[in-house]
Write a structure and sequence with these properties.
269 residues
């Protein structure tokens, strides 16, 4: 008897997958995706945080170097960079890197990428084209001349800083200079913290980023940089839309993160 036909049919049947085997493969793939995707996302967030922190170090060191060439005078928050960013079409300020490199810190920080957080995906429409916006970092608004009245916190009674010798309280290690700002909040180069609104009145006048897994990077007046992991759940409700302006003066009563930032923004004279 010739069994070749029967043998071939059996081999072909064994070459395929049963429905049960296919379902098992799909379940395994789904489980692996569930396990691996969060890990991959966490690795990406970590890498972006490290890159952003490096940017802050570069900018912070540039800020420290500037007054040594200016007889101790600091770069002011209102002109350390130029231009005003938003999400409106055909606003050249959104993409003009000359507003960074031709400003106060440009000679010290010549790489445009240092001014923008790598997690910031904000874009600007110019004509029929779309480009990345140029900046995420902003400066403490209290670093300004005492006569400058555009700030949200008055001086007196709060200290402003325009010379290295002014930085006594808080100490240089505790006075933040530059912050990684929420892309929806970025406009001019000065980040406002309202000192007169505390406890029940605590608010975010401008908003910090939460893109790094709920954290933001800072540089300080002594030149060091650090990442602040936000502690208050209210802070983490500030999402990034990439299309709407930040809800400025956002009330968040007794927000621990607002208090943390206020303690490092300025001090009573």
């Amino acid at each position: 008897m010739d069994h070749s036909s029967t043998s071939n049919d059996t081999d072909q049947a064994r070459a395929g997958f049963t429905l049960t085997e296919l379902l098992l493969v799909l379940v395994v793939v789904a489980v692996l995706a569930t396990v691996l995707l969060p890990a991959r996302s966490a690795s990406r967030i970590k890498a972006q945080s490290i890159a952003c922190l490096n940017n802050q170090r570069q900018l912070g060191l540039g800020w420290v170097m500037y007054p040594h060439d200016q007889n101790g005078k600091l770069a002011s928050s209102f002109d350390w960079v130029l231009g005003k960013l938003n999400y409106r079409a055909n606003n050249p300020d959104n993409t003009n890197i000359n507003f960074l490199l031709d400003a106060k810190l440009g000679p010290y920080v010549k790489e445009p990428a240092a001014y923008k957080c790598p997690a910031d995906q904000s874009t600007a429409v110019e004509g029929s084209q779309v480009f990345p916006r140029s900046r995420t970092t902003s400066m403490n608004q209290m670093i300004r001349p005492a006569a400058e009245r555009r700030g949200w916190t008055p001086s007196p009674p709060w200290r402003t800083y325009m010379n290295l010798s002014d930085i006594v309280y808080p100490s240089p290690a505790n006075l933040w200079v530059l912050i990684d700002e929420n892309p929806d909040s970025v406009n001019d180069g000065a980040f406002a913290v309202v000192m007169d609104r505390q406890k029940w009145g605590a608010c975010w006048q401008d908003g910090p980023t939460t893109l790094h897994g709920g954290s933001a990077s800072f540089s300080f007046a002594d030149g060091h940089a650090d990442i602040r992991q936000w502690k208050d759940p209210q802070t983490l409700t500030m999402k990034v839309t990439y299309r709407e302006e930040f809800p400025y003066s956002l009330l968040q009563p007794h927000n621990l993160d607002v208090q943390w930032l206020q303690d490092r923004t300025t001090a009573w004279q």
